[in-house]
Specification:
The protein contains 17 helices and four strands. The protein is mainly alpha-helical and 377 residues long. It folds into two domains: 261 residues, no CATH class; 95 residues, no CATH class. The strands form two sheets. A two-stranded antiparallel sheet has the order 1-2. The longest helix is centred in the middle third of the chain and has 35 residues. The chain is globular, with a radius of gyration of 25 Å. Keywords: Membrane, Transmembrane, Transmembrane helix.
Length: 377
């Protein structure tokens, strides 16, 4: 058996990863299937799907007025059928489209004022950033309406369930990839083996990367399957601004385009995290220390943001480009964020890609550095 297959077997024969995976997939299933039936939404939205027009909004508002007359004084919507409840809120839903268009126009108007102020101050760096942001907003088009529950849920799953699934499975599955051998006394045999240290290092890294890819593929396919089964395939051609989280996003992307970008970034950051966890495992004296260290690497950014409530400042900006938040992805696209490099603005997604590649390369380098210099006890 080759070293690579042997290392891969050691990872996949751990019972803990299957227990964690089944638990998390079960949690997603319970959350997905324990929801109100939305078949009425799909039926009504399909009838109203198509280009957004003022006439369509006016028609929806008239329908709302007619249904309002059916309501009792306390405006209890329970007296309406499922279809009527959807039609009752249709005007507000369509108005969301118009508001998104207006929001982009207002953003460009505000940016024009800020550009003039920056030009007056001679701040070329700020001018470049603001002009880029304006250019991006000018391409945002929210002029088509359709049922979009499936893509909205799939995209949001990456930010929540996908992040947790990838993070926990990597921590549990890879923390002991090297530390187990040290604690069991096998390390000395490995370091003196005829296959060579670098071959062992490559086998461990390749196995860790393939395992990481498998983890991402498993939850992504499961997520697509669940949400497609529940909500169908409508809405993937709509702009991401139809998801409330991306209402202020300057990125002109459909849900399909964004999800490909989203998964690419998530996978790249996941591979980088796998490399870091391998290093943590190599320098840890026991499996428990490795598990704790790997957990800290993954969970620290989440802890700082959620527990300490740091919403601004340089620490928050720095954490935006932590591997955990790059895996989460949404923070790179929800608003315009950039960093000036040689006077030119570089937008957040490109920074996320660069950070992931750099950390991945450093992880490979330091893994080789550490294993070559390890001494046989």
């Amino acid at each position: 058996m080759s070293l690579f297959k042997w290392e891969l077997k050691k990872i996949f024969q751990q019972k803990t990863i299957y227990i964690v995976a089944v638990f998390l997939l079960g949690f997603l299933s319970l959350n997905a299937f324990d929801r109100e039936d939305r078949s009425a939404n799909r039926e009504v939205y399909r009838e109203w799907a198509g280009p957004f027009t003022a006439g369509k909004l006016e028609k929806a508002n008239k329908l709302n007025e007619e249904l309002t007359k059916k309501l009792p004084e306390n405006e209890d919507l329970g007296v309406l059928s499922a279809r009527e409840r959807v039609e009752y809120g249709l005007g507000e839903t369509l108005a969301y489209s118009q508001n998104s268009v207006d929001q982009a126009k207002n953003a460009m108007a505000r940016l024009d004022k800020r550009i003039k102020k920056a030009e007056a101050k001679g701040d070329d760096s700020a001018v470049s950033k603001l002009k880029l942001e304006k250019q991006m907003f000018s391409k945002v088009e929210v002029n088509t309406f359709a049922y979009h529950d499936a893509p909205q849920e799939v995209v949001d799953t990456v930010n929540t369930f996908g992040l947790v699934f990838s993070g926990l499975l990597l921590v549990v599955g890879l923390a002991g990839i090297y530390s187990n051998e040290r604690s069991s006394g096998v390390e000395n045999y490995i370091l003196s083996a005829k296959n060579g240290r670098e071959k062992i290092m490559r086998a461990k890294l390749y196995a860790a990367f393939l395992y990481s890819l498998a983890v991402v593929v498993v939850w992504e396919l499961y997520s697509l399957g669940v949400w497609t089964y529940l909500y169908g395939t409508d809405g993937w051609n709509l702009p991401i601004q139809y998801s409330f989280k991306y209402y202020f996003s300057p990125y002109s992307m459909t849900f399909t385009e964004y999800h490909f970008m989203q998964m690419g970034l998530h996978l790249l950051a996941t591979l980088a995290l796998a490399g870091v966890i391998v290093i943590v495992s190599m320098i840890s004296r026991s499996s428990m220390i490795a598990l704790f260290g790997a957990g800290v690497v993954f969970g620290f950014p989440v802890f700082v943001e959620s527990m300490l409530g740091m919403e601004d400042g340089w620490v928050n900006k720095l954490l935006t480009y932590s591997l955990t938040n790059i895996m989460k992805v949404e923070g790179l696209f929800m608003n315009f964020k950039s960093v000036s490099l040689l006077g030119m603005p570089v937008i957040a997604p490109y920074i996320g890609i660069a950070v992931s590649i750099i950390i991945l390369a450093l992880a490979v380098y330091f893994t080789r550095f550490l294993i070559v210099r390890k001494q046989v006890a």
